[in-house]
Amino acid sequence: MSNRPDVMKLLAEARPRRLDPEPGSRIDPMTITTYPRSGAGRRRAVPRRRLVLAGALPMAAALTVGALVLTSGGGAAPDRPVPGATGPSAAAPAEPRSARELLLVAAERTGTEKSDAGRYFVRSQEHGERKEVDSAKGRYGVAVRSRIERWQATRPGDQSVDLFQSIGFVPITPADEAAWKAAGSPTRWTEPAPAGHADIVHHATAGPRSVQVIPAGRDLHLAGQPVSAAELAALPADPAALKAALTTRYRRSGGTEDLRQALFFAGRDLVAGLPAPSRVRAAAYRMLADLDGVDFLGRVTDREGRSGMAVAHTRRGDSVWGQTRLIIDPQTGQALAEESWNLGTGRKAAASGTLMGWTLLLRAGYTDETPPSS
User: Fold this and answer.
1) What is the mean pLDDT of the chain?
2) pLDDT at 49 (0 to 100)
3) Count of domains for the chain
4) Reported pTM
5) Which range marks the domain in which residue 93 is found?
6) How many helices (H) and strands (E) does the chain have?
């Protein structure tokens, strides 16, 4: 049985006053670049105590995972009044209205999780990458998509594995779909490869699923360096100390990115994919809340149709403007997705931009089950 009502009641009662909207706060103008609100943003309720990862892979063979505890991934319950609120028209708290407020709310909710234990941390993601297709009827964009389910070992002696499946390409925007149909709705196309490599044939239908063992020491990365599950567990739960630790790691890696960008990416990785304890994810959210250059994009809808709120880091300059967006469910503190956008070039940078790729976090949690071998 779900225990979400008890958790949400505690969150509603414990919400600190500092998270109330700040006077004079405003929505960032970049909100016009996000997806429109729609009824598609409501999501299916997922039991908190038991979870079947095969539901996140509809085209894959069924895979049952026993006693998987939801931690940092999607599948949040639909929007609804906060359990435990009183009065005939109990309503949810006001939505965050700044990047800082959203990230602090997410930290408060993430910090209440209890289970950070299990032989494996299982994470199911969908990856999409924009590709341009040339046809006699014109050019259009498609998303080449794949599902990766990682069984990340948390104990010495266990092997980490990836379950990989191509789930086919689809047109990205309505304009892309119209151009694709005008070209005859092809179900395959060939992507030219660099000299010396074989061309890649893409299909609109899903392919077979494969299982690959991940060599030890090459499965996790943070701030430009490999990181072990034990090192993740030992990261500081204090945001200032976490920032210092990540800064040290990044500088040792020899990376050349702007430090603020590197810290944004490291914080994103901690809250959206790595098997970090809830206390560390909460610290990562608080670190991001104090990081300069994090924009607030307001309410958005991800490629799975889930409603959330987004923050972003934008790389500005004379060359191409790029933006990385992190979409969060403010009710649960769970990261839902990451998106990469091309905003244009220099002064001509577009307000709408072009979606270049995404990662959807569909499921994440711990289990003591043994990973599949095929």
Assistant:
1) 77
2) 33
3) 1
4) 0.72
5) 4-367
6) 7, 14
